[in-house]
Every structure is written in C-alpha cells, then in structure tokens.
Amino acid sequence: MLSKNGIKILDLTYPDLRRLILEMGEPEYRAGQLSRWIYQKFASSYAEMSDLPQQMRERLQAQTILLTLEALEERSTADGRTGKILFRLQDGRTVESTFMIYDPSSLSRERRTVCVSTQAGCALGCRFCATGQQGFERNLFPGEILEQVLFFARRVSREQKGKNLEIHRRPVTNVVLMGMGEPLANYENVRVALEIMNSKEGLGLGARQITLSTAGLVPGIKRLARENLHVELAISLHAPDNELRNRLMPINRKYPLEQLIQSAREYLEITGRRPTFEYALFQGVNDSPSQARALANLLKGLNCSVNLIIGNRTGTEFHPATLKQATEFEKQLRNQGINVTLRDSRGADIEAGCGQLRGRRLAGMIG
Question: Is 126 noted as a catalytic residue in this protein?
Fold first, then answer.
C-alpha cells in the first residue's frame, strides 16, 4: 500500500516485495533477505539489516514505512502467562492484542499464541461484546494485522536471546484472529495478511497454527472455503436457536442458523478441515442443560468441535456462568456425542476480553 508517507512494507506479499526491489534497481535476491529480516529475524528497523547495502537501507528508510503501531498501554497477569497491549495506529485509532502462553501437554510443546484485531471497533453489535458496543471505525490494513504478531514475536525472540536460550520453535507458534472486529467483514485485507502468514517467505504458519473466528458472515465463510489459504475456521455461536441468537448477535437476523450451519458443512466438504463452534457461557442466558441439548441437536451429524468458555462480565446484563454450570453444559454435550472442550478463562484481571481495555480508555477520554 502507498500512503502519503511512502509504501508500507508489511502490506506487501512476497511477489509485491520482489517487484518493489526490482523497481529500486536491486537484484531479486534482496527481496528474500529483506523478508527474512522482517518475518524471521523480527527486525524493528532497516538499520538492523546488516547484509543489505547501506545505500539500499537508506532508500528503504526514505521511501517506505516498516512499522506503524505504537504500544500505549500494557497489562500482564500475575503469572506472566497472559498479556494485553493497547496499540495506537498511525491515524490515532486504537486496537488491542493479547499474548497467551500455554504450558506443554502430552500432545504438544509450549504454545505461544497471539490474538489479533482485524478492525478498529466492530459494526456487528453483539450485545455481550465490549468491542461491539464501541461501534465501527475502520478496517485494518494487512500490515497492521501482521505487525501485532511481529511485536510479540520480536519481544519473545529478544527475551530468549537475552537469557542465552536457543529458540527451538517460532517465538509465536499460533495466531488467532479473534480480537477486535469481524475478520470476514475486512475480507481482502485479512486475506493478504493470511497469505503472508502462510508464506514460507513470511511467517510460515500452517493451518493448524492459524484460526479465523467469525460471527457468522455466511458469504465470507463460503468464499474462504475456496481460497488457497491454510487456516482453521471458528464460528462464534453462543446460542442454540434463532430467537436467542437474534437477541445476542444481530447478524443472525441476516444469516440465521440454518444458513450458518449449512455454510459450515460446505466448508468441511471443500477444505477437509472441520469447523469449531465457540460458545461463551453466560449465567441464566445460554447455559442451561436444555440449551446444551438443543445445541447438540443443532450440530447433529456435522463433524465439528465445540469450544466452551465462561464468558466475560459485560455491563450489568451479562454475568459469567459458574464453573458448575459450565461443567454440566459440557457433560450434556459430551453425552450427546459432541466433541467438546471447556477452555480456561484467562486474563479477567487485566481486562483481556475483547475490547475491554480499549473501552475503558475510550470512556476515560470521553469523560
């Protein structure tokens, strides 16, 4: 992308980057060097790129923009396993990102996951979501999405080097597009960001390492199924019937559950990757055993999984379900043959829920 100040490097796919390098009169292999500095060595400036000629680095500095985000505020949990940062974009708008470290299990090594935003604000207005109450400001560019990942990758990489520890895996092992905004409402920019995440010249992440979460934009799900992108699909469901989902998630009035579930079936048929349904449990709203059985009936015959999580407190209307209620809900689904996982609810003490930290800051500015 060309801004008034120059080309934003992180907006460029590798073919675009190669063309830029050739237009600068440099040999093609310089594109590979530049890409490695950005996506594998996590350089924060052109000055660090020591194997590029000095004159080339000066031209890049004069004609392009490498990084654009500014960290405004940061919070971490007491155990240091979850952190959240509020970033300011070039135009002054703000977005949030969350970094989560998951302990190794018998099935996998330690995971370091970044949850990124794809929009500043959101237009969908889900009633339980802090971001949805803030309104929509604008879509993020591909580079603004990628830079959230690179920020944490750079930090982990430097911390490891400072401790003289060898990094056996990528500093960031997983990316989830589950932060502020609806990814499929920013389709083209998200597609480019995913292409760069997948690319061996970019972050080199595969399908099991990237998850895109949607509130249920059916045309976007169908389009994503036909893209040559390696990404897992997660669908925010949060209700087992249209009446409740209409109330919680207005997008359901346009794309009701019948259409949404059918699009998930098509995604599975085309990609071979089973979708995941996310379900946040709120006390007295969507957490009863009968609602669990209704959810199981809705998903009957679909090869999928369900991620349950105890919802975040939002305003005065939505209160987290108790652990007992969540466990009973999980049991009901499991008894109906649904592949279900009750996830840990993390970061409540640092306002890690989507849009919470930004919302508090906006309220302070308004007040």
Answer: no
Do 287 and 320 form a contact (C-beta atoms < 8 A)? Answer: no
Q: Mind listing the pLDDT tens digit for each residue in 282-307? A: 999 999 999 999 999 999 999 999 99
Which is the catalytic residue, given 122, 126, 129, 354? 354
Using DSSP's 3-state secondary structure scheme, residue 179 falls into coil
Q: How far is CA 352 from CA 54, 97, 134, 302, in A?
A: 42, 9, 16, 32
Per residue in 182-224, pLDDT tens?
A: 999 999 999 999 999 999 999 999 989 999 999 999 999 999 9
Q: Are residues 177 and 325 in the same domain?
A: yes
- Please state, in angstroms and as integers, the Cα–Cα distance from residue 205 to each residue in 200, 201, 265, following that order: 8, 10, 25
The residue from 26, 96, 144, 147 that is catalytic is: 96
Find the domain containing 53 and state its range: 2-65
1: buried, middle or exposed (CB in 10 Å: 19+, 13-18, 0-12)? middle
Select from 36, 65, 94 the last residue of a domain.
65
Q: Does the annotation mark 195 as catalytic? A: no
Distances in whole angstroms, Cα of residue 286 to Cα of each of 126, 220, 290, 344:
14, 26, 9, 18
Residue with tokens 């989507």: 354
Find the CATH number of the domain harbouring 44.
1.10.150.530
Are 56 and 91 part of one and the same domain? no
Q: Which amino acid is at 9?
A: I
Residue 137 to residue 302: CA distance in whole angstroms: 36
